[in-house]
Amino acid sequence: DYIIKTDFEEAVDLINKEPLLSLIITKDTLPEQDIALRLKNYLDEVGKSDIPLIILGDQHKIENLRDNQFVIDSPTNIKAILKLSAEQLGITPSMMAEIEMPTFYPVDIDHFLVIEKTVCDVYIEVENPKANHTKYIKRLMKDYKFPHSIIHDFKNDGMKEMFILSDYRLEFINQMTNDFLDVMQSETATTQQKMMATGKVQQVFNEKFNAEAFNEEAEALAKECIKSITKLISGAKNLKELLADLLIDQNSYMYVHCQTTAFIADKIIDNMEWGSKEQKEKLHFIIFMHDALLQSDEEAKIATNEELDGSSLDKDAKERVKGHAAQIGEKLLQMTHMPFGADTIIMQHHGSRSGIGFNDDPPNNLSPLAIVFYICERFADAILNSDMTKTDPYDLIEKIHFKHKKKDKYVKAAETLASIDWGYGKR
Q1: Alpha carbon 106 to chain centroid distance?
Q2: Is the CB of residue 135 less than 8 Å from the CB of residue 124?
């Protein structure tokens, strides 16, 4: 069990009231205060220095740490935080294995539009208001090839999730992911099927990237997704055709945005004097990774500080969106093979050199690829948020051009956008 406090006074109040505190995890500093130092001094003052203290970040001003006080330099190094916390709480792997999971585990219903059979029975959830409880009814049988029309019927009734017994969770996810990969690599699957499968693998990757270190399994999934995105780009005649295929099924906004931005970036690089295959590959990697820490389409749609402030996201989600560029750039350093400079470009992809927040007036001294990415993403955002049956993409490009008309590198990227036939009729 954990309790979150947002300032020193709230933390002190909890320390005084709660006799069973087993561990304190704190940021190194908060705005205008050395929170870790103040907490350490307070624990000493009230005779509670036996409570372990983990400090996230290296800006604390504690000169002599006790044996039960620790520093983790990177606040996003989740693996290190969990490992150290478990050690201090006396939690062993065997104890974790014994923790009971809920009887049923939810699975996004759209996943079943890609696979054709499952390794376990699948249930739907039915509310029974009179009996004041929920029951689960089997609708798909293990190893039985089911028609996708059943899933479409469930979706039309408003169903968003189906359920499996939790004991089968790992086996199901592994098999489902392998099925998605098979579709992505298939010679007979349609473009729409490959797009949907690629989007689902991206979701699986993002969940692993959020929950675990960047391990071999996650890296392999990323490579397969990027390979599929690259093939889908090469198979599309133009942007209009690509979007028609992308939007025919219920692909996530995060994936649609990723595939669209990658296509736009590819065409810009083709028309840049310094463009090369290596630059394309680097951008495909960066575009796939740039929103990997975000947890919903609502988060992924935010592109300005104003949109962030006005969103209905809770405090934690807003902090995640605000700092995701910096956090991903830092987390990529865990990779064994990362394209050179990819972490820097991801940090700068919202126009801020620090990777924090959104800069609507970015400087001209960002990395050249970061500037290309920035302009590509502005165009992708604009076209995905427009009525694509009526919008002239070149009007959108002109607005981007006007916004950055005093910055030569941005102007060059915008002019290149305007020179490409996107399939809507070239000017």
Answers
A1: 20
A2: no
CA angle 316, 321, 322 (to 5 degrees): 95
Percent of the chain at pLDDT > 70 equals 95
Burial per residue of 71-105, b for 16 or more beta-carbon CB atoms within 10 angstroms, e otherwise = bbebbbbeebbeebbeebeeeeeeeeeeeeeeebb
The confidence band for 63, taking pLDDT boundaries of 50, 70 and 90, is confident
Total-model pTM: 0.71
d(CA 427, CA 419): 8
8 Å CB contact between 264 and 280: no
Range 182-218 burial, b when 16+ CB lie within 10 A, else e: ebbeeeebebebbbbbbbbbbbbbbebbeeeebeeeb
Instruction: Name the residue with higher pLDDT: 64 or 81.
Output: 81
- pLDDT tens for 326-343 read 888 888 777 777 788 888
Nearest C-alpha neighbor of 319 from the set 330, 307, 308 = 308
